[in-house]
Each structure stands twice: as C-alpha cells, then as structure tokens.
Request: fold
Amino acid sequence: MTDSERAAQALLSAKAVFLRPSEPFTWASGIKSPVYCDNRLLLGYPEIRAEIEELLNKLIEREYPGVEVLMGTSTAGIPHAAIVAEKKGLPMGYVRSGNKDHGRQNRIEGADPAGKKTVIVEDLISTGGSVIEVAEALREAGAEVMGIASLFTYGLKKGVEKLAAANLKNVSLSDFETLSRVALSQSYITPAEYEMVCAFRADPGGNWYEKV
Reply:
C-alpha cells in the first residue's frame, strides 16, 4: 500500500472524508458533491492521528528539504503544523484569516518567518483561494514560501490552475481519486456509487448525480 493509500484509509476510517454519492452534499458554492471533508475529526483518534502526522512528516522531509519553519492555516491546519513541528524540532506559527482588531493586530502568530524557508500546512485544498491568501501574507512578511503540505486535495482544475498562477507548489497526503479507489476496494462505497463519484470528478459543476 502506498503512503497516499494509507492516508486515504486513515481519512476514511475516521470519517474525516466521507463519501455519500447517493445523497450528495451541497457546498456553499451550490455544487452538489458526493464527498464531505472534515479533517478536524482526525484529532479525536490518537492512533489514526499519529499515522497521519508521521506520513505528513515524511512528505515534508521528501518534498521540502531544508524547511526552517512550519506555518499552519487557521484553524484546521494549526494542530497538524504543531505536531509535525514538534517531531522535526522546528519553529511553528500560524496565519489568521485576517488581522486581529486589537492588541498588536497581528495576522501571523508564533514564529517569525521572515527570511526563512517556510512550508504552509493545510488540511484541505479545494479551490485554493484561502491558502493563496496565507502564502501572500507570508511573502509580504518576508518568508521564502517553499510550498504547501496538505492532508487532502480534491484535485479540482480550478484549484490547480489558481495555485499554479500564484506560483505555489502543493503536495497532498492523499487525493480524491486515490481515496475513491480505496473506498471502493474496502467496500465503503458500491461499484455503482463509485461510478457516480467518477462522474463528479469528471464534471464537478455538472449534473453528475442525474447522469448515472
């Protein structure tokens, strides 16, 4: 089993990523999706959490040699950045969604990333908009942003294109395609439901749920 498949299995077992193609979820954008993702649920399962953090540590070592500081996204990326930073003995901080309206009005908390090779730790990549804002804030603060290490990505074309335009590398522990295959192989979904999932993957904004 590959690391990506191990991560997918962990996400499925904690129901952090949940497939329900017969009863699609509706995203804020109005898109109907067969997948629901809440990686915060991983925090409630110590053994699964430990496996995810070890895989994330391994991913960062392989993809971002020389990293000097980890920055979590607020709020879901913070615990993962903290745990991996502890494993690696690295400084860690996080980036708020906006500046505080009191005190020092910081947006970046914790370690100072200025002049340092920085990796952003994110739980989920969909369209990429929020993590691009985080990268811009870090770059404005003088960080050398190496890229993003995320737990899961939908692999949506829009997100891939936006990250490329922002000159941002992203590597994820697992992705929608891998997770779907693992879900089928371990009977989380039926073959008919897998076909529905594939239809969504091919045309996320379409009426995939009516075509199968």
In short: The first strand starts at residue 17 and ends at 19. The mean pLDDT is 93. The first helix runs from residue 3 to 13. The two ends are 30 Å apart (CA to CA).
